[in-house]
Amino acid sequence: MPSSVPPAVSKSFVALIPAILTLTIFLIVRIIFTFTPWGNIHDFIFQIVQAPLTSLGKGIIPTIIAIFAIQLLWFFGLHGQIIVNSVLDPIWNTLSLENIDAYRAGEMLPNIVTKQFMESFTVSLGGTGMTLVVLIIILTMMKSKQLRGVGKLAAPAGIFNVNEPCIFGLPIVLNPTIAILWILAPMVSTLVAYLAMASGIVPLTTGVSVPWTVPVFISGMLATNSIRGGILQLVQMAIVGVIWFPFLKTWNKSILKDEAAEEAE
After folding, report:
1. How many structural domains is the chain composed of?
2. Residue 77 and residue 173: Cα distance in Å, rounded?
3. 77 in helix, strand or coil?
4. Domain that holds residue 154
5. What is the DSSP code string of 97-145?
6. 163, 222 in Cβ contact below 8 A?
7. 176 domain residue, yes or no
8. Which end of the chain is more exposed for a tag (fewer CB within 10 A), N or C?
9. Does 158 fall in a domain?
10. What is the pTM of this model?
């Protein structure tokens, strides 16, 4: 453009050719898809990409793998939920929408695994790793000052499923003695929740959004519209407690010896 043309006008013409090229390409794509069985690119993506991924994501094996990945990432100090959920949230939310549509229509709910299942029956049991019951065991059964100090600090936040004080306070991050318990307990507990719903003992989640900070038992009832959802959460906590208790008991004895030695000095 000549130098006499104002910069604002010149810039608009510079952007004109890329804009025309972009619109032309997408117009051609749209026309091409009108001759296909899908009719448009949106239905093509849904049927070829989204539908298979959604079908895969609602199974128990992918769910357990997701829990494993979340726990493993947290063990290394990385926020497992943010990383894993960024990939799987679109699938879980789609499954939730299917459930809530069926619930409103008075039909049978189609999906066990939904966004509410992944929150109310995993995170809502005291945060990542379902550690609320671990804190309860520490505060009621352990005598170590160190463990009880962490328990007192972490328990108030843990009630609302915020458990960073527990993860970094015990510590769990980069602690190889806890790694197996940390990963195994949530996987077993989630499997039990899945089987309880698959067998019809506990109703499926309705798809109604329940904030992950809602305390245990209440969140289970809200997610399933049944008291059995809350009872299932308590059963899950008991399972996690049984898995953790032998280790906590041994760990408590070890720390008590160290504390006694420090006091003797």
Report:
1. 1
2. 6
3. coil
4. 60-264
5. HHHHHHHHTTPPP--S--HHHHHHTTGGGTSTT-THHHHHHHHHH---H
6. no
7. yes
8. C
9. yes
10. 0.81
